[in-house]
Amino acid sequence: MRITLLVIAVVVLAVLNVFIGAVDIPVRQILDVLTGNDKESVEAYIVMQSRLPMTITAILAGSGLAVAGLLLQTTFRNPLAGPSILGINSGASLGVAIVMLAMGGSMTLGSMSVGGYSAVLLGAFAGSIAVMGILLLLSTMLRNSLMLLITGIMVGYLASSVIMILNYVSGADSVRGYVMWGMSSFNGVTMSHIPLFATSVCVGLIAAIALMKPLNLLTLGDEYARNLGLNTGAVRNMLLGTTGLLSAVITAYCGPVSFIGLSVPHIARIVFPTDNHRKLLPAVMLTGAGIGLLCNLLCLVPGSSVLPLNAVTPLIGAPVVVWIIIKNSLKRG
Amino acid sequence: MGQIEKMRVEKLTTGYRSHGETIVVTKDINAVLNGGELTCLLGPNGSGKSTLMRTMAGFLKSIGGKVMIEGKELGEMENGEMAKKVSVVLTSRVEAPNITVREVVELGRSPYTGFFGKINKEDAEAAANAMEMVGIADLAGRRVSTLSDGERQKVMIAKALAQETPIILLDEPTAFLDYPSKVGIMMLLKRLAHESGKAVFLSTHDLEIALQIADSLWLMDKHKVMLTGRCAELSADGSVGRYFDNNDVIYDKDSRSFRVRNPE
């Protein structure tokens, strides 16, 4: 029942994303474009080459980041874990910065050749995996979740510092390309890149679904999970790989989107109060898609210009984080 | 009650390996766990109870010697096989805020469920029976995070029962409980051992309760050889007294309790 409502909400938001945009296009004309009766007009180009890929990207990126957040929260058994707050996005950013600035950065991701894109993706992937590896290593030493969180934030600052130095020594053009990427947006994926983007994200989502049983076992703690037959080391690596893939692909295309990964699992838990990943995972995927679409719409609202994504996501994410902290400290008295 | 051997440790040396160094905690232990019995592992802090327990559960590699489970060596078993032989109840708390009692107990079925961990009719029945045996059937729908420490302990015991293993290891299951709950848990475990024929093995600091309830004892001390045997016999022949008596306490075998030697 609740899941049906969630599906309806996602569908409605997706339709709104196609029908509402920076340019006013009559509903009639959009329907003409979607049914294939209008292929030539400027409006047709906007709908098919901008709004449609942007809507698909918002769904996949929202969903993927939310799942990455859930996997991290279960792996670290920490409600405040998420790709952005743990510095995984910063790691990806650092990788991208190195690649982009090395390549001159005059191109934006959308117009990049597949070869150039692969280099950026590889940079993002290497960066995020490196940070994840450091965090997993530290998590064996730091049982206190707050300490781990602060460590993650520090790793993030370190990455930002290196990025700043790189920017400082690079030319203005390169920096501009990187800064635009850094503000995040769902419009960086062109229709021609959608198949590659969608495939990569779907591989990550399917991997997450395949890890449902191990995720449920990990909610009991590592030793209980092991005693119930789980190869915890291998599973941790698979979780690391899946989270790394999702954050890396999405960060490479959309920029370091903040707060969606961290906050969506909690928003989903408000509607579905469960720790059973067989129910939680689909709920998080749908909520992530919905929040992605909602944020994309909110970017449009004020007048003609389009806000960067990272101007909007903290408005939803930050209050959720504060709420979790308050809730947890009240519980502990 | 038949004396069916479920687990045996032979010349077992336990300890840790850290920074390339081997730190031995206990040396050359020989002991047996029988089915249908409650066996208690007693010893002061730092005597290596926890290390021994973790080695028997397969969490720590032994430094030397063997752990034999129903005739097969522990080191030769895969995680999946081990999961059907030995279940554990640990001191760590389950912290997931929304997980329900039934969900935890059903996770005990994991060694038998498929790729996605789907619970079939048989699994649901096994979990329901386990909750019934432990007396928490009425809590099935409750969230574990809302339960008392004693209730939580029973949930983990039910999880271990649902796992359907011939051996259950419990690391200090009575810690943090009030006196009646300690006795309650211990009596429950004894009943389960007798009814199910499982070997139930627990470590505890609650000497007197253990000495009154246990079927068998493993007594540990850092400076002494481990002593094992039937609880009644070890108590009656003065072994327990010799093991624990010191300048301050003395064991009274008639009441199976300890007294302070010089109360002034």
CATH C-level class of the largest domain in chain B: Alpha Beta
Estimate percent helicity of chain A. Answer: over 70%
- CATH T-level fold name of chain A: ABC transporter involved in vitamin B12 uptake, BtuC
**Structural class by secondary-structure content of chain B:** alpha/beta
Cα separation of the termini of chain B: 45 Å
Q: Please write the string of helix (H) and strand (E) elements of chain A.
A: HHHHHHHHHHHHHH
* Name of the CATH class of chain A: Mainly Alpha
Along the chain, the helix and strand elements of chain B come as: EEEHEEHEHHHEHEHEEHHEE
Structural class of chain A: mainly alpha
Strand count, sense and barrel status of the largest sheet of chain B are: 6 strands, mixed
The CATH topology of the largest domain in chain B turns out to be Rossmann fold
Largest pleated sheet of chain A: none
Q: Hey, roughly how much beta strand do the residues of chain B contain?
A: 25-35%
Structure report:
The complex is a heterodimer of chains A (333) and B (264). Chain A is mainly alpha-helical. Chain A is 74% helix and 0% strand. The longest helix of chain A has 34 residues, at 42-75. Residues 106-110 of chain A have low confidence and may be disordered. Chain B has 264 residues and is of the alpha/beta class. Chain B folds into 2 domains: 1-85 and 166-264, Rossmann fold (3-Layer(aba) Sandwich); 93-164, no CATH class. In chain B, 32% of the residues lie in helices and 30% in strands. Chain B contains 9 helices and 12 strands. Chain B has helices at residues 49-56, 79-82, 101-107, 121-134, 149-162, 179-196, 207-213, 231-236, 239-244, and strands spanning 5-18, 21-34, 37-42, 64-69, 72-73, 86-89, 167-171, 199-204, 216-221, 224-230, 249-252, 257-260. In chain B, the strands form 3 sheets. Chain B has a 6-stranded mixed sheet with strand order 6-7-8-3-9-10, with helices on both faces. A 4-stranded antiparallel sheet of chain B has the order 2-1-4-5, with helices on one face. In chain B, strands 11-12 form a two-stranded antiparallel ribbon. Chain B is globular, with a radius of gyration of 19 Å. Classes of the chains: A mainly alpha (333), B alpha/beta (264). Chain A binds chain B through residues 77, 210, 212-213, 216-217, 219-221, 223-224, 226-231, 269, 273-276, 278, and chain B through 57-59, 79-80, 82-84, 86-88, 90, 92, 94-99, 103-104, 107-108, 110-111, 113, 115-118, 163.
